[in-house]
Design goal:
Elements: E1 2-3, E2 10-15, E3 21-30, E4 33-39, E5 47-55, E6 58-59, E7 63-67, E8 72-73, E9 84-85, E10 90-95, E11 102-108, E12 113-119, E13 129-135, E14 140-144, E15 154-159, E16 164-172, E17 182-188, E18 200-201, E19 206-211, E20 216-221, E21 230-236, E22 243-250, E23 254-257, E24 270-271, E25 276-279, E26 291-292
Parallel strand pairs: 8-10, 9-11, 18-22, 23-25, 24-26
Antiparallel strand pairs: 1-4, 2-5, 3-4, 5-6, 5-7, 10-17, 11-16, 12-15, 12-17, 13-14, 13-16, 19-20, 21-22
Amino acid sequence: TLRGRDLHQAEGVWLSLPNARAVGFVAGSSPTEATLKVSVPREAPLGMCGLRLATKSGLSNVHIVLIDELPITGTAPQTNSKPLAVSLPCCVSAPCRPAAVDRYSIKVAAGQSVSFEAIGSRFGKNHDPLVTIRDISGQILTQRDNDPGLFYDCRFAHTFERPGEYIVEVRDSRYEGDESWNYVLRMGSFPAANVVVPSAAKPGSTSEVTLPEQGSTATLTAPQRPRMSIFNQDVRRSPGEPATWVTLHASDFAPVIEIEPNDDADETATLATIPATLNGILSSPEDRDCFAFPM
């Protein structure tokens, strides 16, 4: 459902994805609201994409939306009410209201690791989501605000020592909100990784990458013909597990990964044969990665 002005001549929707189209109106349109049913192709990558409403008089401004494979609920808890019980994995979509603290209850097993992701700032809104996990007595177990590379959003994992019910809180870090702000809270066993190494892939290739934040590896298959040179790629721990997404660069050049220590350009530089994509991690302050190649 899109809300705004001059929407009574709505005809369809545009997505920044190949073969995505509007199937038809669900409830028609009015000057202030248009409701459509959108068909997203099965091969569409997870992550953020652009959406514009097409009308007889032109296109609307761009809105950022999320494509996800987790079960989606549009039900949000009411302020000052008891937490809304949800089952893992899930993807909660809700508005960000001024001074509101939304609470969700989850049940976990002993030793279970659950990944959490809040998306608000990446929708292009002035929203800074803060996620707090409490036990049933109200004790704070962990709290997360901003993560590098995600603007003011966050993506992290938490391992629960004891089984039982826990409360997940979402609010704006400044207690602000607006009727045009919304957020998505993802919870499940997806990898809590923001980057992969190498971060460049040959279109159509299958390769093993490292998830440095997780200390693990994953197998990625890049699309044969990415729509753009920078694209989102699904990442999952194993087939059948929920996925997250990372950003990759499409390149026909072979990737070269830094080998530490390589801070000294003359003594320890990582050797590379060009053309190539050079990949590395600035893992500590003042870290310098040097590569050497023959001319």
